[in-house]
Amino acid sequence: MELEKASARLAPRSPWQAADLGTQFYRHWAGSITGVWLLFTAVPYALLLALAAADNSLWPLFVFWWLKPLWERPLLAFYSHALFGETLTLKALLKRWRGYALPGLAGQLTWRRLSPMRSFNACVWQLEQVKGETASQRLKVLNSYPSNRAGMLTLLVLHLEQFMTFGLMALLYTLVPWQFNLELSDWFYDQSGLQLAISGLCFYLVLCVTEPLYVACGFALYLNKRTWLEGWDLQLGLTRLGERRRAVKNVIGALLIFMLVPFMEPAHAEPSASDTTTSEQQQVIELLASPDFMPLEERTERQWINQDNSDAESWMETLWRFLFENLDDDETDISNSPLNIPDALLWAIFWTLFVALALWLIIKVANQFGLRGHRTSKRPMIPTHVAGLDIRQRSLPKNLNRAVEEALKTGDIRAALAVLMRAALAGVLARYPVALAAGSTEQQCLRTLQQQHGDPLPIAYLQRLTQAWISTAWAHRPVSDEQVRTLAQHWQQMDRLEADHG
Amino acid sequence: MSQPATLADAAALAHDIESRLNQVLIGQQQVVREVLIALISGGHVLIEGVPGLGKTLLVRSLGRVLELDFNRIQFTPDLMPTDVTGHAMYDQKTEQFRIRRGPAFTQLLLADEINRAPAKTQAALLEVMQERQITIEGKAFTLNEPYMVLATQNPLDQEGTYPLPEAELDRFLFKVLIDYPAHADETRLVNMVLDGTIRASLDVDSLSPATDAAGLQAMKALSNDVLIDAEVLDYALRIVRATRDFNGLSHGASPRASIALARAARVQAMFEGRDFVTPDDIQQVARPVLRHRIQLSADAEIEGQTPETALARLLDQVEAPRQ
């Protein structure tokens, strides 16, 4: 690779600046690269689209989508040569197809197909043509910290692709005369062959823009990473410096000859070599410090403070690395590379939200169409409040008789019955559980118990108690003290009896 | 004509009226009960149901059983307010203005398909319903008691209708939903028509009066004596207040709904032969009192909720009265 021939300035950039450079690549060679795309994809896509429209099936289009890494190969081949001054003709691209299209393709079309780093890693497979362990090592190095943001690029282009497709379809819809009575929603729900063909055509037109752009950005990210790692900018800078020095030396030599020959003087001591060296060093330092080589950049990254202390790594850190470094890229060297939390977090948040959204939609749809069976637990949850009465065990008095007597002493029959009612409800519901809402009244509770469990002794007792409670609380006709005591005794006898039985 | 002297008499009379009405209105027991509660409470009823379910028959039967005057107005888009209330007309013979009373001068007024008329005609009913009087040419005419408006709405055909404004809806004590009768009831109805027990037309001649306006007034007075405990009243208020900030409702019921709930619960207790109101009475009448006074939020409507489901959730969540 002759870096001097590169038509773009190779300098270390942030990933986003590198992606910007990729868009410049695309804009610069837009016509040619679109031609390459059309040459390799127009016919296959037309055939697959015809098949899809004929069968009214999306499978052929899915096949095209799956083969995207294959369609991207000629684009990358074109960019990689065009950058260094060699514009490949369509014929040359066809001739060399086997050479650039096959290396690493099997992996890219199978287990690596869904990798978000596709645009970046494709450069390693295709341009460096490395295989096996060497390829893995190479990917580890290139995907090491800091992140190259290729995953985010994929995410962005994916969204761009979808928005543009829907936008184009909406535009077409607005242009269709109203007499055709075409509903936009029909395109999604009631797809005829024609509608499928139009949708497929829109998708392809969008791909004509997004695919060359995506490949160009991935290529620019790859170049940027190599520039950082291999110091391409330094290499180019030093080469340029050397050329400049050679030119200056020649001029100085010519001048010296011109000056010394007519005015020859006695010999003087030679200037020390160290002076020249010092000035050259100064030049190099100034050059390296100039913005051309070291663009000033402010950045905020989060890192583990004790990242170097790998021996003391906690299990949490190990898990963190395992989960998120893998999300970023399968090929990253887990053991050596420091964590890249922002990128990893972005992916983790994205997938979490995606899964949550998918689950929410599934549940929503299932509920909407009544597909979700109502699971009824074998044992209904025992309510904590019935008719506003707290019937939890901890709220009940330890000595029921004493609580009832204390209320009766103060003449508060309603309070005495309320205590008794709470204890009875808690006891009955523990033995005969039923599902009751917070707003259930005492009569609803009784009716539900009778419907579900018949009329055993405790429920019959509860009925008597409820009548006494209603008479006292709502009718303002309090029952006598004796009746309350009798009810309390009956409850305790029944409670003991039930406990003995079981 | 029997007039109840005690609450027990009133309950017996109410059941008698109810059973007579159920003889002609087959399979609509709940509707009959709710309309009677509204009538005894002194309220008006908005009935919603598809045509052919016996709404007019219900009103005619009520008039017959209670010996009350009955009028019916079919609301149409060109109906004018004076067509409802009446107007002053110049009599050339006497050379004086004469008041021509409209169909609203009655005791039972059936406003059929009320939402077919524009807002100004609907508004003409406002004064009638709230003030129980009609003003024509500045002169107020008090209506005879009892007075009840039964307005109907068709839930299916909404083309060219004018939805009732909230202010007018609030003046209806109950909104009653009238639905198709159950299979067994419909079978019984068809058999009764076929064997001549009842006629297919709106024939209410077979019904005999059970009481009159005075009897009805006595029942109303007795229902006012039904005890409502402070806790139970508080429960009714909590239900109404809960509608105002309940999830899924964009606006809730007014204080008029609280009054309506308490009044209707008393009559419901009277129907049960009790002289006191229980929380169950409140729950029993909460739905007809509140269903037309609440407005579902857009989210809830999109989720497929209805006022009925929202009210069911609300009643489940508002805790029944404490000790």
Question: What spatial form of chain A do the alpha-carbon principal axes imply?
Answer: elongated
Largest sheet of chain A: 2 strands, antiparallel
Overall domain count of chain A: 3
Mean pLDDT score of chain A, rounded? 79
How many H/I helices of chain B?
13
Gap between N and C termini of chain A, in Å?
89 Å
Shape of chain B: globular
Number of strands of chain B: 11
Largest sheet composition of chain B:
5 strands, parallel
Task: List its traits.
heterodimer; A: 502 residues; 3 domains; 21 helices; 67% helix; 1% strand; B: 323 residues; alpha/beta; Rossmann fold; Helicase, Ruva Protein, domain 3; 13 helices
Provide a compact summary of the structure.
The complex is a heterodimer of chains A (502) and B (323). Chain A is an all-alpha fold and 502 residues long.
Describe this structure in words.
The complex is a heterodimer of chains A (502) and B (323). Chain A is mostly helical and 502 residues long. Chain A is built from 21 helices and 2 strands. A two-stranded antiparallel sheet of chain A has the order 1-2. Chain A is elongated and about 135 Å long. The N and C termini of chain A lie far apart (89 Å). Chain B is α/β, with parallel strands linked by helices and 323 residues long. Chain B folds into 2 domains: 1-225, Rossmann fold (3-Layer(aba) Sandwich); 226-323, Helicase, Ruva Protein, domain 3 (Orthogonal Bundle). Chain B contains 13 helices and 11 strands. The A-B interface holds A 368, 385-389, 414-415, 418, 437-444, 470, 473-476 and B 227, 229, 231-232, 274-280, 283, 304, 315-323.
Please specify the SSE layout and strand pairing.
The complex is a heterodimer of chains A (502) and B (323).
Chain A (H helix, E strand, L loop, with lengths): L14 H14 L1 H26 L3 H8 L1 H15 L7 H6 L1 H5 L3 H5 L8 H11 L3 H11 L7 H26 L10 H4 L3 H38 L1 H29 L12 H17 L25 H14 L12 H28 L16 E2 L2 E2 L9 H10 L3 H19 L10 H12 L3 H17 L7 H21 L1
Antiparallel strand pairs in A: 1-2
Helix pairs in contact in A: 1-12, 2-3, 2-4, 2-12, 4-8, 4-12, 8-12, 10-12, 15-16, 17-18, 17-21, 18-20, 18-21, 19-20, 20-21
Chain B lengths: L6 H18 L4 H13 L3 E4 L6 H12 L3 E5 L6 H5 E6 L4 E6 L6 E5 L6 H13 L1 E4 L2 E4 L5 E6 L12 H4 L4 E4 L5 H12 L18 H11 L6 H13 L6 E3 L3 H17 L7 H12 L4 E2 L1 H5 L4 H11 L6
Helix pairs in contact in B: 1-2, 1-3, 1-8, 2-10, 9-10, 9-11, 10-11, 11-13
